[in-house]
Every structure is written in structure tokens, then in C-alpha cells.
Amino acid sequence: MKYAIIGSGRQGTAAAWDLAQFGDAQEIRLLDADTAVAEEAAARINRLAGRNVAMARTVDVRDGAALTSALLGVNAALSGVPYFFNVGAAKTAIRAGACFNDLGGNTDVVRAELALDPEAKSAGVSIVPDCGLAPGMGNTLAVHGMDQFDRPLSARIFCGGLPQQPKPPLGYKLVFSLEGLTNEYTGEAIVLKSGRRASEPAFSGRESIVVDGLGSLDAFYTSGGTSTCPWTLEGRIPDYEYKTLRYPGHYDQLKPLIDLGFLDTKPVKVGDVEVAPRQLAHRILERWIDFPDDHDLVVLRVDVTGEVNGKTRTYRQEIVDRQDPVTGFTAMERTTAYPAAIVTILQARKEVPAGALPLESAVSGAAFVRELNRRDIRLEAGWLD
User: Fold this and answer.
1) Between 254 and 106, whose confidence is greater?
2) In the list 139, 240, 324, 356, which could disulfide-bond 127, CB 3.0-4.6 Å?
3) Cross-strand partners of 199
């Protein structure tokens, strides 16, 4: 198979490593506007793989002609660029005849990608947005959990990227872009409640859950985690929701700042200068949460409750993953990039139908779990009663 990674940063490099191991890869094209970034990623993959399977190309995602040329002959491409580039990249993949998926993160952009369904079908390629961790694997495992029941009643997804050793004052380590983090902390979470779509304010609905080895964690609504599932699954399950996990204390310290408007995007005038509070907050926050040398972990828990054989039961799937000391890939890189790479592989094999489809409809939960179990990410699954 021939693959392309659009955007060769941290997640893109981890995805390339997964494709090199499990994707029958003859060639992996690492595309980036920064030549040094692409070359460093390709060298790292070739070193880990022990063969020259990755190659660097300097391509700016905004240059449609150059990106089309770089994707010609590729079976499937994975986008690791910021979400606002994904619609254009998806259109380019269709023109090049390549399947396409991305790490997503913005449901409005996902809807624009799904509107490309006629063009994708005509080209005989699949387009699947929102394929990372959350949104992404969490929703795939939720649908897989629903498949265990005669009548599913509720699905609850809990997910958090955390430092292994939390530091004050916020007990958090930046595990993906700060812009993505503050985007999740604001806006609304779309859920299903009693069979109907509803919205909950981000940073609301706090509760505590206990994870073995970590103790009690705070869980609360954030935006984007359910992706398109509240629309796709309406009528199939009454209740469906996603909450983010953090160590105790983080919520209490940030909630007042959010309520006071420190993450607002509308500029305010300070002296003679207009500045968006969120931009200022980014500059201040990053020094308190950006610890690149500290190891991380990821918790993903998916609880589905429903009726099976006349009884009400709960099926739990849980991952607690830690940074890999051998490859150096962080837990967030592994649990975000590897699921997207799995989708890329399934697309290349034509196990995903042509067209632009939401992840929960495009990928079989059983097929995903089969592929996940080939990796060194341990999924614990079973009935709670």
C-alpha cells in the first residue's frame, strides 16, 4: 500500500509509524510545509522500522495543485493538519483519487466534509472525518458496545490526557494544541437525552469517577467529543454523552476564569490595543501546562448500558495507556494517531465504502477492535455484572 500523511508533526509521525508496522506499507509520504519537519519525521520512521519506507516532501496544504500532485498514486491519506484545512484537503484527495481521513475536532468542518459525499462516491474513494481519540476511538468503541445489546439504553464516554506526575497549579500537561484545548473548554456539548438531541454548556455537569491506579478523577462536558453521533445514532439509543477527565483541582481553578470571560474570542480594548482574551490566556497558560519532557497517560472509558437476554447490564471498555519508552511516542500520540491509522488501513483495503461517511457509520466496531488488539494498546472489556 501507498500512504500519505498530511502534516508531519507529532500525531502524523506516530500515525506513519503505525502504518509502517501494520499497514503493509510500501511507501509512506510525509508531507509538510516545513521541510525540516518532514525530513525529521521520515528519518525517525525509517530508523524505527529498519527500512526506507518513509519519504519527505515539502507541500503546503493550502497549495491545492501541489497537494494533488503529492497524493497521486496514494491508496489512503491521513490529515494531521489543523481542522480548518481539512475540507480543502479532502477535496484535493478526491481529485487525486485517494481515500482520506483526519483527526478532526470541529463538528461544523466535519459536516462540510460529509457534504462531499457525491464527489467521493463518483471518485470511488472514502472520506471519514474525526478519527482520532475523542472524537474518534471513543465513539467507535461506544458503537461497538451498543452492538453487544438487544436494546442499548445509554452510552457514556470518559476520556482524558493527563500527566503521569501532575504539577501545580493546574495539575495538567499540554498533550495537544492549546488552541484545541481551549476550543473544547468552551461552546456546547451535543448529547442525546431521552432520545432527543440536547446541548450542555462546556465545563458543566461535573461528576467523579474512579480509575484503578489513578483514584478519583473529575469528569465534565466539553465540546466536540460526540462529533456527529447525536445525529447518526438518534433513534438507536436514548442517551449518549462524552465527558473529559482531569485530576481534582483543575476544574475548580479554571471554571471561574472561563465564567469571567478569559477564554472569550471577542477582542476587548486595553489602552490603545484590542486583544482577544483567549489569545492573552494562551500566552499565560502555556508556561503553566507545557511540560514537553514529562511523561503522559491517557484514560478512555466507555460504558454502555442496555438490555440483553431480558436483563439490564453494563458493558465497559477501558484503556489506560502510558508513554512508550521504546519509541518515545506519548500516550496521546499513540491513542490519537493509531486509531486514525487503523481507519487509514481499512480505507486502503477498501473495507470502508466509497463516499463521505461519519466514522460511526463507516467503520465496523468489530473490525476496529480486531485491529486495535494487534497493537500494544491494551483494551480491557467486559460486563460489570
Assistant:
1) 254
2) 356
3) 190
